[in-house]
Structures are given as structure tokens and as C-alpha cells.
């Protein structure tokens, strides 16, 4: 019994027996690419057009409780889940309506290093030590340990794991949210291992990246992985013959595009970290102390096959010798490299100058070290994100901000031992703990209402 | 990860769960039937009876219960079947209806596809990515491409129809552009590759052969201007076509086809076309045609270069004729004016037709520089032109006009290589202007000096400025002289002295003639006055440069004021005491140099209307045996009679030689100074480098001759400024 004016734009939805009234505008907010948007589209309402003055009514055979939450999400943009609704049910319903992306967007806000909260701890079930954790661009992650890479979606549900001949995994990288690159060791006597691309969704092997030497396919052991913005994939390689250096593949063709043989004095094939620097079109290759006796960092320019910049701690005076650079990260401005040693000192290298030493920053002693002696320690790691610097030391991640890198936050989550690796991506930070392979998920809560 | 991804391996299959809840085995089949029916109904425009929610749920259930593959496969085969039917209905469409039918069906398919995708959205989101299938919308487009566009009955017919319509439009017919637009948009929607392979490539090929034929035809029967007009129109038509119904990416490609066929292939023939090519356009100032040529040629490689090269060679050729034609060298003012006109003409062409293109301006400048310097009298003539303008040419002109003319002269001046020669002449001409008081405007003179100064620096004009200062001080001195000595002087003749600083003026030392006693008195008075105020100076009279106004009474008592030179005055004063004198007498009394005296007597006795003297025997030339008498019968309508000396405007050949000699002489110290400057900073240098450096340094004033430079170096070695290196004879060392 509504007046035509009041009825215009109103929609009545009967969801599983419960009637909801809302406006077409609210539902249109779901987008044409959602079930609700399509249902209200003119193409599906041609017969009803004649009597269009009244309130349109639709029946949807779904659970009303979850729909209430999702309708509220469409109305307010905020997600408020009553305790009786499980995560799984909500996500299932959101997927039905095509609103899963909105649920994810409402779950956590834009990444802010100083506002992180521990969102979840996911118990691992790895038989051995975890090697690496990698954040996916969509908020999921993967954990590599032993011969398997376990893949989690952003709801932290485990997908099918990824194997490359069950060979031990050295590194993994998300090329995009659906594609996972895996670098696995070659085992003696078996021509396995290498670099391969998998579907992160299904775990299917897409492609194996080969190295050909004198037109012969060679098996090799890749160390670290990286890729640039034009879909070139890089991996540090150790082959059976002379294939020591950095292999390059074109992802679009799947073929080997280049090989940078290591020049004398440059340990490229052993590198344990690669990082593509967009600003200078160079690849940073770092080979660190535990793997070799001396730490070595270089920037490679593939256009003219040139070592554009390099640094090594070979020949550092004895008094400083005990300071080993253990991890390095190129800062986002592309002008310096931040390094860390076993005493958790931060240091900086200027990329614009060749042949300079590390400027150690004594005042940036990290947190007060609360070292329980029975715990196994892990080497510290670094990451840079949005102008902030992150460093893992034992079971803590320290956040440094501003141009002078002042310590602004510390993150300490699960009591599951030291952090052996961490990764930032998809507006989340994942920290992998050494014992039990638990990984902690840190994200930024949505901004407060007022 | 679609399409162009790396080769995939799909050698294992997800196994179904063993403990799955058994559904009614007919369930999947029944659900699919419902969906299949819906798809048909959608294609039949009969969707109003369908419930979206129900269909969506059905599709959801199929995917949920692992019938995704069946659903997807069913969709693919149903749609394929529908498209095959559609293909048949398009095939039977007759003639012009073909495109209409194709377009209508395409619209229908698009709409249906959207609705099908709505129903199968859940499958699109979940089953499709996890099984690496093509999304529904893309699948629909691919099937349309494969079964409609690439169907053997449609494929070539579609292309032929499109190309035929375009050909018709080129021939002037009106076609349905809206329909064309829809069809090309369809090809684009199917993917850039479809548009390019199935339409664009053949379209470009057909266009190329069309324009190649048409250009042949045009070039046979059109002159250059008309041809260009037609090409321009064709080019605009093609751009118009792209904007109306082709993809924007085609514009560059089709225009380059037209450019190549219509312009690039005929470029040389066009510019050289007899009676209508570039040169004729330049001669006739055809701004529109030239602008068209510029704009069209700019589009093709080397197009502008072709125009520029031809223009340059034309300019050089005509310029060379202009400056070397002896006929045209007779009047320097006319000569320079012609150069200026030429420059103006081409400036305007470049400005109006060539969009002020810098490269063309440079070509014009270099051409002028080339031919102006072909004639080594150019500096003199340019100076004469300025002289002419500053004497009388600028009378009545506004300040701006003066500036404009002077700026143009400066532009010619910039082209000159021998700027020092110009300076030499300019100094002479300026001196004459200043001393005879013929300057029209002091401001114009100074403005010219400022321009020269900005162009060539202080050094170049310091002496010229000194001349102006001299004029000013002379004026002050004369005022002071008359103020202080007026009672002493009485009623004698008035004397006006210009005191010229030696060195600033182009004066030649010249023995003074004998002045008449009346003048001599006052000259001596002035001398003593001047030396009294300025001790330590020396005054020499330059009697060859002065003028005098004298009053004379002739036979019938008529009085005339005669305006004569100092020499003439001396001669005439002799006739105060006697009526007749022989040449020898005059020479003896006055001591005027013979050549000057002859010229002076000639102008006094042989010019009609100004013959205040009578010569015996009567003849045109003066010989040493002539006798001169005071001409009693002299009459003139004017009270003031100006008796000019026969002055050479242009320099005669020997004078020219002399000036050149002096210029060469003046260059020597400059070259030497340059050598010393260079060697002082470089210490050791080889011969060729010195020559190069010296040329570079002196370029602003003149182009030094390498032979002269070599001589100067040798002279400097003699004077021990430099020495040859002991081991390498090509090297010179500076001796501090």
C-alpha cells in the first residue's frame, strides 16, 4: 500500500523467508558484476516493467542471517559479524552473491606499519624448519618448508600445496595472486629441481623454466628468485657444469632470455637474495655470510651485462671483522641499501657511490634483547615498505620510520620461537616462527569510526 | 595466465570425493536442461518468463556439486549451436542487407551473452579460474569470431563488403557510416588481432593500390598546386573516415599509406614540376600552395629536406646572379635594396607558409651568407646604403621606420664575413656625413652605432663613437672661441672648425694649401686660441675636407651665395684681384694637389648652370694650358648656388684597391694579436690548430686567409715571440 513516489527505487527481498527492504541504489552498490546487481538489471526485469510503480519483490533462496550482514556491508561499507555466524558461512554466502572482494576489503585497512594488530596465528604442520613465508598480493600467503610449499588464501584456508618433484624448496615468489614461482634444489643423481610456475589456486604446474647450455638442457639448483615489472624472472643458479650466475626467463614465452655468468670475484650463483630495482633497471644480488665466508652485494645491469655497483666485506679491518652483514634490502628510493649484522645493528650503503663502506648506525640498536638461552636464534631479516623499514630479530619485528629510521613499533606475536622469515604484501605482514612453523598474520584494522 | 601463457601441463585430474553425498543422478541433467532452455529463450528474446534467481541458483548448484565441467561444456556446445544457426541466417541475407543482418545479430548475441554470463556468474568466479578455462564473456566472443566472422561463407564476404563500401565512399557516394562503425567496433571487440588481420591489413593494402593508381593519374594531368590540393583532401578524408568509423589506431597507418603513395613516391617530381613546382611557387609568392606543400611534405621522411635543399639551391643561384650581375652593381643603394627585398620576400614565405620553421630560417640565412660574400664589394655597398638612408632616405620617416630599416641592414651585416671592411667604409661614410653636416638624424646615427656595438662589441665602434665626441667638443670649442674673441675678430669671415682626433677619423695626411690671407688671419687666431687652452697639442689643417659659403656679385649686379669646398673657395678668392688666370698660376698660388685642383676647376667651369668661371679654350676637360676667367654672365634662378665637387659615390677601381690594401694592413696586427693570445694560453700548438683557433677568434670580424696567418706566424718567430719546436717542426712554442 505504498504511494508510487515512495515505491520508486525500493526493493523488497525475501531471503530464505525473511523479508528485507532496501533501495535499488544500495544493491547497485554491489556492482553489475555481482549477483544482486545482475538480478536488478533491466535485462532481467523486462516483464515487470509495466507494473513498475510498486515495490519490486524478489525471492532469494539463501540464509537470511548472513544476508543481513552482507546487506549491512553494502549499506555502510563496514563489516560487523555477529558471533553466531562463522567465518566460513559468511565467506560462502559472500561468494554466492559475488561480494567476497568487498568482505576482504572491509576486513582490514591499508597497511600501516605502526597500527598493526595480530589478526591470526596459523599453526603449521611442517615436519621440518620453515624456509620462507611469502605474502600474496591478495592477502593470502605461502610457506615453504622442505619439499613443499603450503598455500593459503586470504581467509587463511589452506589450498592444495605445491610440489616440485618434492625437492627441497629454496625460495618462492608470487608473480601475481594466481601464480606462484618456486625454486627447488636439484638432488644428486636426479634431474629434478629448478624453477617452475604453479597456479596458486589449484597447485597445478604451469611451466618449468629450463636452462640450456650449448643447446643442452641442464639441471641446476636455483637459490633466490625475483622478477621485474616486465615479467622477466631472475634466479641465482648453480649448475653442474659452468652454469654459475643469474638465469633470466621471459614469463610470457616461458623461455630462457639471458644468463649472467658470474665474473671472477662475484658470487652470483650462491646468492640468497635477489631484488629488482625499478629506478635504475638493475638487479640487486646479495650473497650473505652464512652461505659464504664473506658478504657480497652487487647491482647487475642486464642491458650491457655489467656489474653497475658492488660491495664486499672482504678485507674489512680485523676489529670490524666480527660484524657480518647478514641481510640486505635496497631502500625504495633506490639510493641506498640497508644491511643488518648479527648484533642487530643497522647499516647503510650508498648506491650512488662505488667502493664505500657501511655506515653503521650505533644508535639504532634494536630492541632490548631478551634472549632466552635455550631458544634457537635466527638470523635477522629486513624488509622495506612504504618508507618504513622492518627488521626481524629473534621473536620480534621492529618498525623504523621517517628519514632517520627511528624505532617506532615492535611486533611480538606467538610464543613460538624466533622469526625465521617474514614478508609484507596484500596489506598484510606474515611472520614465520621457527618452532612449530606457526605463522602470524598482522594487518591494519579499518580506521576508527570517528 | 591466459592465452599467451607458457605451455601448461594438465596431466592429472581432480578425483571426485569417494564419500560424496549421492545426488539424484538425473539431477545434473535436469538442472542443465533448465539452464539450456533458458539460454535458448534468451536468444529467442523470450527472457521475461525466466527467473534470474532460480537460474543463478541452478548454476550455483551445478558448480557446487562438481558439475562445473558439464555446465561449461554444455554452455559451449549450446552457444556454438546457436551461433551456427545465426551464421546461416546471416549467410542468406541478400546484398545490402548482409551487414544489417550481421549487425543486428551481433547486438543480439552481445545482449544474450551478458545475460548468460549473469546466470553463470558463480561458475565464472569459481570454476573457470580454478580449471583455467576461458571466462564466459570471452568464450562468447571467441565463438562468435570462430563461427561467424571466420565462417567461410561470411569471412571474405564481410571483408569485400566493407572494402567495397569504403571504395564507394572514396568515389563520392554516401554510405551508412553508422553501420560501418558498428561493424568495425564489433571487430575491435573481438580483439585487436581480429580487427587487424581480418580488416585493417587488407584495407591498407587496397588503399595503397588505390592511391598509387590515383596519384599516377593526378600527376599526369595536374600541376603541382592542384596535385597537392587533391592529396590534402584525400588525407583529410581518410582522417575523417577513421574518426567516423574506424579504430583510432588505424589513423597513423592509413595516413602513412596515403603519405607514401601520394607524397613520398612523387616528392621529387612534384617539387621539380615544370612551371608549377617549388621554384615557381617561391617566385610567385604562392603562400597557400607553399603552406600546403610544407604541411604535406612534413609528414614524410626527408620531405622537408627535399623542399629545403631545392629552396637553398634556388636561393643561392638567384642570389649569385643578383650579386655578380655587373648591370646590377651600378647603383649600390639599389643593389642593397634588392637584397633586402629578396630577404623580405623569403622571410614572409617562411613565416606565412612554413610556420616559421627554424631549419628553413637557417637555410635562408646560410644562403644569404653564401652569396653576399661572393661579391667582395658587399660591405662597401651596404655601408653606402646606410649612408644614403642616413643622408636623405630617412627624411620624414618615423623613429620606428628608421629602426626597421636599420635592423634589416644589420641583418645583412651579420651575413658579411669581412666585417672589418664594412667598418672601414662605414667610418669613411660617417666622416663625410658628419663633416658636411648631412646627417638627417643624430638619433638614427647613434642607433646604428648601438646596433653595431651589440653585434660586434665595444672595440668595433669605439672609433666611430670618438667621431661623435669630436663633433660635440668642436661645437663647444667654437662657441667658446667666439664668446671670448668676438671683439678681436671684428667683421671678418666666420670660421667653423671641426677638431678631429687623429686616428679616429679616416683622414689622409695632406699638405695644406695656401689659404687666402683673410682666412689665414682668423685661422691663426683660432690656432693660438686653441693651443692656448690645450697645451701640448698639434693642429693640422685638413683643407681638403672643408667647405665655405662665399658671397659673389656678378656682372649685372646680381648677388649669389656660393656654397663651395675649401679648395674652390681658395681658387675663387684669387679672382677678387684679377679677371683671368692660367692653370699654372692657380696651381702656384694655391698649392692645391693637381688631381684635386683639376676636379675643383672642372666643377667651377664646366658644369652647366654652375659655371662661375669661364675657361679657354672651351672643353670638357681641364688641361694645364687652360686659362680661366671670372664669368661675368653667370646667371642662376637660385640665390644660393651649391657647387658640388665631382665626388665619386662609389669607389673607383684604384681606390678600391687602396682600401683593400689598407684593410689587409689593418688585419695584420689583429691576426698577430690573436696568435699571441692563443699561444699565451696554450704554450705549445701545431700549425693547423693555430689556424683553426685564429679563424674561430676572428670570425666575428673577418675570415683570415691561412696564408696570411702563416706569414704572421713567421713574422712572430722572427721577432722571437714564438719558436719552432726543435724536434717537431710542425709545433710552435710560445716564448714568454
TrEMBL record, chain A:
> What's a BP term from Gene Ontology annotated to this protein?
protein homooligomerization
Q: Which domain of life is it from?
A: Eukaryota
Q: Name one Pfam family in it.
A: Beta_prop_At2g24240
Biological or metabolic pathway of the protein: Protein modification; protein ubiquitination
| Xref: InterPro entries | Beta_prop_At2g24240, BTB/POZ_dom, T1-type_BTB
For the BTB domain, which residue ranges apply? 9-115
Protein name per its UniProtKB record: BTB domain-containing protein
From TrEMBL, chain B:
From the record, give the transmembrane residue ranges: none
PANTHER family in the record? CULLIN
Q: Which domain of life is it from?
A: Eukaryota
InterPro entries annotated for this entry?
A: Cullin, Cullin-like_AB, Cullin_homology, Cullin_N, Cullin_neddylation_domain
Q: Does the keyword Ubl conjugation apply?
A: yes
Ranges where the Cullin family profile domain occurs: 377-605
Query: One MF term from GO for this chain?
Result: ubiquitin protein ligase binding
Taxonomic classification, please?
A: Eukaryota, Viridiplantae, Streptophyta, Embryophyta, Tracheophyta
The name on file for this protein is Cullin family profile domain-containing protein
What GO terms describe the biological role, i.e. biological process, of this protein? Answer: ubiquitin-dependent protein catabolic process
Amino acid at each position: 500500500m505504498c504511494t508510487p513516489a515512495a515505491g520508486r527505487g525500493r526493493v523488497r527481498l525475501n531471503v530464505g523467508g525473511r523479508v528485507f527492504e532496501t533501495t535499488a541504489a544500495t544493491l547497485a552498490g554491489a556492482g553489475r558484476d555481482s549477483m544482486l546487481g545482475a538480478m536488478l538489471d533491466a535485462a532481467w526485469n523486462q516483464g515487470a516493467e509495466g507494473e513498475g510503480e510498486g515495490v519490486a519483490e524478489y525471492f532469494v533462496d539463501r540464509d537470511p542471517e548472513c544476508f543481513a550482514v552482507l546487506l549491512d556491508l553494502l549499506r555502510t561499507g563496514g563489516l560487523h559479524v555477529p558471533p553466531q555466524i562463522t567465518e566460513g558461512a559468511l565467506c560462502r554466502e559472500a561468494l554466492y552473491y559475488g561480494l567476497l572482494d568487498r568482505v576482504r576489503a572491509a576486513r582490514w585497512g591499508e597497511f600501516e606499519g605502526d597500527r598493526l594488530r595480530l589478526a591470526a596465528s596459523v599453526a603449521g604442520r611442517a615436519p621440518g624448519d620453515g624456509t620462507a613465508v611469502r605474502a600474496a598480493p591478495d592477502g593470502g600467503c605461502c610457506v615453504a618448508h622442505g619439499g613443499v610449499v603450503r598455500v593459503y588464501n586470504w581467509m587463511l584456508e589452506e589450498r592444495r600445496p605445491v610440489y616440485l618433484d618434492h625437492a627441497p624448496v629454496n625460495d618462492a615468489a608470487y608473480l601475481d595472486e594466481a601464480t606462484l614461482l618456486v625454486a627447488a634444489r636439484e638432488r644428486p643423481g636426479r634431474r629434478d629441481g629448478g624453477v617452475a610456475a604453479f597456479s596458486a589456486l589449484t597447485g597445478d604446474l604451469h611451466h618449468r623454466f629450463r636452462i640450456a647450455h650449448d643447446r643442452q638442457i641442464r639441471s641446476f639448483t636455483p637459490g633466490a628468485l625475483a622478477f621485474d615489472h616486465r615479467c622477466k624472472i631472475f634466479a641465482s643458479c648453480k649448475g653442474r657444469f659452468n652454469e654459475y650466475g643469474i638465469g633470466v626467463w621471459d614469463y610470457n614465452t616461458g623461455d630462457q632470455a639471458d644468463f649472467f655468468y658470474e665474473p671472477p670475484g662475484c658470487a652470483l650463483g650462491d646468492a640468497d637474495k635477489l631484488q629488482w630495482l625499478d629506478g635504475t633497471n638493475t638487479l640487486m644480488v646479495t650473497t650473505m655470510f652464512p652461505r659464504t665466508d664473506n658478504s657480497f652485494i652487487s647491482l647487475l645491469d642486464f642491458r650491457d651485462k655489467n656489474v653497475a655497483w658492488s660491495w664486499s666485506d672482504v678485507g674489512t679491518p680485523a676489529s670490524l671483522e666480527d660484524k657480518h652483514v647478514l641481510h640486505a634490502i635496497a631502500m625504495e628510493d633506490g639510493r641506498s641499501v640497508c644491511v643488518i649484522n648479527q648484533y642487530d645493528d643497522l647499516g647503510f650503503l650508498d648506491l650512488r657511490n662505488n667502493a664505500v663502506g657501511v655506515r653503521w648506525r650505533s644508535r639504532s640498536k634494536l630492541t632490548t634483547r631478551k634472549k632466552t638461552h635455550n631458544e634457537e636464534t635466527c638470523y635477522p631479516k629486513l624488509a622495506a615498505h612504504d618508507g618504513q623499514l622492518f627488521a626481524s630479530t629473534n621473536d620480534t619485528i621492529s618498525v623504523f620510520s621517517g628519514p632517520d629510521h627511528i624505532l617506532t613499533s615492535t611486533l611480538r606475536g606467538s610464543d613460538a620461537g624466533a622469526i625465521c622469515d617474514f614478508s609484507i604484501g596484500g596489506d598484510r605482514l606474515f611472520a614465520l616462527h621457527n618452532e612449530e612453523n606457526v605463522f602470524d598474520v598482522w594487518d591494519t584494522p579499518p580506521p576508527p569510526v570517528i | 595466465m591466459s592465452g599467451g601463457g607458457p605451455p601448461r601441463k594438465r596431466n592429472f585430474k581432480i578425483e571426485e570425493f569417494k564419500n560424496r553425498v549421492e545426488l539424484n543422478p538425473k539431477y545434473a541433467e535436469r538442472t542443465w536442461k533448465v539452464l539450456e532452455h533458458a539460454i535458448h529463450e534468451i536468444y529467442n528474446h523470450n527472457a521475461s518468463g525466466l527467473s534470474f534467481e532460480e537460474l543463478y541458483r541452478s548454476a550455483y548448484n551445478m558448480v557446487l556439486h562438481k558439475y562445473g565441467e558439464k555446465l561449461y561444456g554444455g554452455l559451449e556446445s549450446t552457444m556454438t549451436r546457436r551461433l551456427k544457426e545465426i551464421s546461416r541466417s546471416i549467410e542468406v541475407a541478400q546484398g545490402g542487407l548482409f551487414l544489417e543482418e550481421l549487425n543486428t545479430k551481433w547486438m543480439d548475441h552481445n545482449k544474450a551473452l551478458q545475460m548468460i554470463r549473469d546466470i553463470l556468474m558463480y561458475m565464472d568466479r569459481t570454476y573457470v579460474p580454478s580449471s583455467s578455462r576461458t571466462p564466459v564473456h570471452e568464450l562468447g566472443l571467441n565463438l562468435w569470431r570462430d563461427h561467424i566472422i571466420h565462417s567461410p561463407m561470411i569471412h571474405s564476404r564481410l571483408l569485400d563488403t566493407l572494402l567495397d563500401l569504403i571504395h564507394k565512399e572514396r568515389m563520392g557516394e554516401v554510405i551508412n557510416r553508422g553501420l560501418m562503425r558498428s561493424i568495425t567496433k564489433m571487430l575491435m571487440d573481438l580483439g585487436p588481432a581480429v580487427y587487424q588481420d581480418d580488416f585493417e591489413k587488407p584495407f591498407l593494402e587496397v588503399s595503397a593500390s588505390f592511391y598509387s593508381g590515383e596519384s599516377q593519374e593526378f600527376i599526369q594531368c595536374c600541376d603541382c598546386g592542384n596535385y597537392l590540393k587533391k592529396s590534402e583532401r584525400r588525407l583529410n578524408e581518410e582522417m575523417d573516415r577513421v574518426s567516423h568509423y574506424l579504430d583510432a589506431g588505424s589513423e597513423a597507418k592509413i595516413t602513412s599509406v596515403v603519405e607514401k603513395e601520394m607524397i613520398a613516391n612523387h616528392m621529387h617530381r612534384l617539387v621539380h614540376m615544370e612551371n608549377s613546382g617549388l621554384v615557381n611557387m617561391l617566385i610567385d609568392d604562392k603562400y597557400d600552395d607553399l603552406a600546403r606543400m610544407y604541411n604535406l611534405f612534413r609528414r614524410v621522411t626527408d620531405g622537408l629536406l627535399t623542399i629545403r635543399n631545392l629552396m637553398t639551391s634556388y636561393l643561392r643561384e638567384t642570389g649569385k646572379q643578383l650579386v655578380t650581375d655587373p648591370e646590377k652593381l651600378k647603383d649600390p643603394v639599389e643593389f642593397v635594396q634588392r637584397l633586402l627585398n629578396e630577404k623580405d620576400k623569403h622571410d614572409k614565405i617562411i613565416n606565412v607558409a612554413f610556420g616559421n620553421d627554424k631549419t628553413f630560417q637557417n637555410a635562408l640565412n646560410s644562403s644569404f651568407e653564401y652569396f653576399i660574400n661572393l661579391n667582395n664589394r658587399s660591405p662597401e655597398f651596404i655601408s653606402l646604403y646606410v649612408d644614403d638612408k642616413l643622408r636623405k632616405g630617412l627624411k620624414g620617416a618615423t623613429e620606428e621606420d628608421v629602426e626597421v630599416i636599420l635592423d634589416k641592414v644589420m641583418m645583412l651585416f651579420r651575413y658579411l664575413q669581412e666585417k672589418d671592411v664594412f667598418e672601414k667604409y662605414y667610418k669613411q661614410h660617417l666622416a663625410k656625413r658628419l663633416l658636411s653636416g648631412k646627417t638627417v638624424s643624430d638619433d638614427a646615427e647613434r642607433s646604428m652605432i648601438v646596433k653595431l656595438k651589440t653585434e660586434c662589441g665595444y672595440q668595433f665602434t669605439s672609433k666611430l663613437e670618438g667621431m661623435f665626441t669630436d663633433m660635440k667638443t668642436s661645437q663647444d670649442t667654437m662657441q667658446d672661441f667666439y664668446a671670448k674673441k668676438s671683439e678681436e675678430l671684428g667683421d671678418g669671415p666666420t670660421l667653423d672648425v671641426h677638431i678631429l682626433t687623429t686616428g679616429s677619423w679616416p683622414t689622409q695626411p695632406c699638405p695644406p694649401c695656401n689659404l687666402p690671407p683673410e682666412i689665414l688671419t682668423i685661422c691663426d687666431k683660432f690656432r693660438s686660441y686653441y693651443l692656448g687652452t690645450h697645451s701640448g697639442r698639434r693642429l693640422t689643417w685638413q683643407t681638403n675636407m672643408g667647405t665655405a659659403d662665399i658671397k659673389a656679385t656678378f656682372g649685372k649686379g646680381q648677388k649669389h651665395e656660393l656654397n663651395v669646398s675649401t679648395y674652390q673657395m681658395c681658387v675663387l678668392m684669387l679672382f677678387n684681384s684679377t679677371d683671368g688666370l692660367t692653370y699654372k698660376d692657380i696651381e702656384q698660388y694655391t698649392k692645391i694637389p693637381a688631381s684635386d685642383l683639376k676636379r675643383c676647376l672642372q666643377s667651377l667651369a664646366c658644369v652647366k648652370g654652375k659655371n662661375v668661371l669661364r675657361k679657354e679654350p672651351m672643353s670638357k676637360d681641364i688641361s694645364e694650358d687652360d686659362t680661366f676667367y671670372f664669368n661675368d654672365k653667370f646667371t642662376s634662378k637660385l640665390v644660393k648656388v651649391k657647387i658640388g665637387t665631382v665626388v665619386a659615390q662609389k669607389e673607383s677601381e684604384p681606390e678600391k684597391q687602396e682600401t683593400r690594401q689598407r684593410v689587409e694592413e689593418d688585419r695584420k696586427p689583429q691576426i698577430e694579436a690573436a696568435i699571441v693570445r692563443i699561444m699565451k694560453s696554450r704554450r705549445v700548438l701545431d700549425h693547423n690548430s693555430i689556424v683553426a683557433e685564429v679563424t674561430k677568434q676572428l670570425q666575428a670580424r673577418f675570415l683570415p686567409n691561412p696564408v696570411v696567418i702563416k706569414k704572421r706566424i713567421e713574422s712572430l718567430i722572427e721577432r722571437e715571440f714564438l719558436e719552432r719546436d726543435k724536434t717537431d717542426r710542425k709545433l710552435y712554442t710560445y716564448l714568454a
